[in-house]
Design brief:
Distance between the termini: 19 Å
Strand content: 15-25%
Bound molecules: NADP nicotinamide-adenine-dinucleotide phosphate
Oligomer: single chain
Helix content: 25-40%
Shape: globular
Number of strands: 21
Radius of gyration: 24 Å
Largest sheet: 9 strands, mixed
Number of helices: 17
């Protein structure tokens, strides 16, 4: 673990780097690797005490991929791909955390990382064309870092949200948010446990702890269209096939619409007969993870009748699995199409409700009133708990960026510039904040995160290299480029069929947050085409200029 207050080899006064990356998650690690590869002096600061980002903070029981492990991991090195044998098609959190630590050590990046360093302020100096960044750790503020380029790889799902339900401070048991899970194991043995929230995180926790608890009460506000993850160990034959097929896998993942390797289906739902559709839905149900979205009927998201039939199939499955008809009925979504929200994938979730010690509380019938010292009160009365698990989501997209005290040109806070929602070009930069980039931030594509985040990190690196080759050091996206991308995102999001407005996609899970679409509504192909245009047009989406003042004298940082 590195908690040193200074950059290796730097004088104590002003650590000075070309590139400062924020966040040691999958994107930040790659961005650091790329920056160093291109010869920039680079440093990475991370609020946690270890590597992993999402896979560091979300260490709750049951946390695992629902993208195939080998499609989520890095593709930039065939040797790395060859030597890391994922154990399961969908790896659990500990394996992923080990993998990311392995990558950091294998590529000798740890010495460029400073942990326990949360960015609390970042201000842009227009004359020097540099960012001054303050971090805070366990022992308070650390010396400011001066960076030419500030690259915030702070993630879209990194600021946990706990609803403002009264009485939480008085709760005498243990309470945890899935996204801020403690490093030390939580002992559920014989405990009365509440899980609040039934989306991707909550539905992973429930079956993972059900064997240990005395009782488990699941508080559901909205049911979700959960389907089986269909995880399995990777056999030695499959390991061999993965290695021999690496080039093709990389090509598929680097070019596919959503960053997955599953091919799209070639038929619309009603091209098939009823019998054929029944067999196809069964096949989908038994297919791994996201295939239910990526390889389902072509018109699943555009034809309400096709979507309704698939939903009816899932509802019948839920009724088949869950013995109590009332519980089954409550677990079936009534108000959303499949794919309108990000679908969770499960192992043993519905089955858990057949246990005598598991209860489902439908908050739409009996709303939560308060947390009491001993438990949770709903409109139906008080239930006693030893542990409450808040699986209640995140301040998505803009959450982390708006909490870093970022001030751009003329001291304009990012929080002010984005008061009505994010404005970006390609989800990588915003006007008035020169030399600040945010790969994997708001307005990025939707799909397998690491794939399009690395598209962005590569693009950012290319822009930096272009600026250097043209003897410039200040890069700023034009207002026009930003406006076009932002308008495109907002226009696309008004499509009536494809998007759930009552979800974190629009920020509507956070009280008071402006309702704006926070992904790239045109997806990865649009990202590709606009990147290609930007390159073909000599990066004219940006202005490039020369700083008027030299960098602070205390230059530093290992390469
Ligand atoms: P989420 O999808 O935002 O779900 C939050 C849950 O909390 C929802 O069930 C929500 O109910 C509930 N909730 C929020 N406020 C509440 C309140 N006041 N009272 C009661 N319930 C409340 O968050 P998440 O489950 O952590 O997942 C977030 C994202 O993280 C996922 O979409 C996915 O991208 C990622 N993730 C991935 C994996 C994986 O398998 N790889 C696992 C976990 C998470 P409503 O629906 O009614 O708002």
């Amino acid at each position: 673990m590195h908690t040193s207050a200074h950059v290796a080899g730097a004088p104590a006064s002003v650590p000075t780097v070309d590139v400062l990356v924020v966040g040691a998650g999958i994107t930040g690690i790659y961005q650091l690797y790329r920056a160093r590869q291109e010869g920039y002096s680079a440093l990475l600061v991370e609020a946690g005490t270890g590597v992993g980002g999402t896979w560091y903070w979300n260490r709750y029981p049951g946390a695992r991929f629902d993208s195939e492990s080998y499609t989520y991991g890095y593709l930039f090195s065939e040797e790395l791909f060859d030597e890391w044998e994922w154990q399961e098609h969908f790896a659990a959190q500990p394996e992923t955390e080990r993998y990311l630590n392995h990558v950091v050590d294998r590529f000798d990046l740890r010495g460029l990382m400073r942990f326990d360093a949360r960015v609390t302020a970042a201000s842009y100096d227009d004359v020097a064309g540099r960012w001054t960044v303050i971090t805070r750790g366990e022992h308070g503020d650390e010396p400011a870092i001066s960076a030419r380029f500030l690259i915030a790889a702070t993630g879209v799902l990194s600021v946990p949200y706990v609803p403002d339900i009264p009485g939480q401070a008085e709760f005498e048991g243990e309470a945890y948010h899935t996204g801020l899970w403690p490093a030390s194991a939580v002992d559920f043995t014989g405990k009365r446990v509440a899980v609040v929230g039934t989306s991707s995180s909550g539905v992973q926790v429930v079956p993972a702890i059900v064997d240990e608890v005395a009782s488990l009460t699941v508080f559901q506000r909205t049911a979700n269209w959960c389907t089986p993850l269909n995880n399995a160990a990777i056999t030695s034959d499959e390991q061999r096939q993965l290695r021999s097929g690496f080039e093709q896998l990389r090509e598929t993942l680097n070019t596919s619409v959503h960053g997955f390797h599953h091919p799209p289906h070639d038929r619309a739902a009603f091209d098939d007969t009823e019998d054929e559709r029944g067999r196809f839905y069964e096949q989908m149900w038994n297919s791994p993870g996201f295939t239910k979205l990526t390889s389902n009927y072509l018109d699943l998201l555009s034809n309400p009748d096709a979507n309704a039939e698939w939903c009816a199939f899932i509802a019948a499955k839920i009724r088949e699995i869950v013995h109590d008809p009332e519980t089954a009925d409550r677990l079936i979504p009534k108000d959303q199409r499949f794919g309108e929200k990000r679908p969770p994938f499960v192992t043993g979730y519905f089955e858990a409700f057949n246990r005598p010690n598991v209860t489902l509380v439908d908050l739409s019938e009996t709303p939560m009133v308060r947390v009491t010292p001993g438990g949770i009160e709903t409109a139906d009365g008080v239930s006693e708990f030893d542990i409450i698990v808040w699986a209640t989501g995140f301040d998505f997209g803009t959450g982390a960026l708006l909490r870093m005290g970022i001030e751009g040109r003329d001291g304009v806070p990012l929080a002010e510039y984005w008061r009505d929602g994010p404005r970006t070009f390609l989800g990588v930069q915003t006007h008035g904040f020169p030399n600040l980039f945010f790969p994997g931030g708001p307005h990025a594509a939707a799909g397998n995160n690491p794939r399009y985040n690395s598209d962005q990190a590569d693009f950012i690196t290319d822009v930096l290299v272009y600026a250097r080759a043209h003897d410039t050091d200040i890069i700023e996206v034009t207002e026009r480029a930003e406006e076009r991308w932002t308008n495109m995102v907002n226009r696309g999001a008004s499509s009536p069929l494809s998007f759930g407005e009552s979800s974190y996609y629009f920020g509507t899970n956070i009280p008071g947050k402006p309702k704006r679409y926070l992904l790239n509504s045109a997806g990865r192909p649009k990202l590709f085409s606009v990147i290609a245009d930007a390159v073909a047009n000599d990066y004219d989406a940006f202005t490039f200029s020369k700083a008027q003042a030299p960098a602070p004298s205390a230059s530093a940082a290992a390469r």
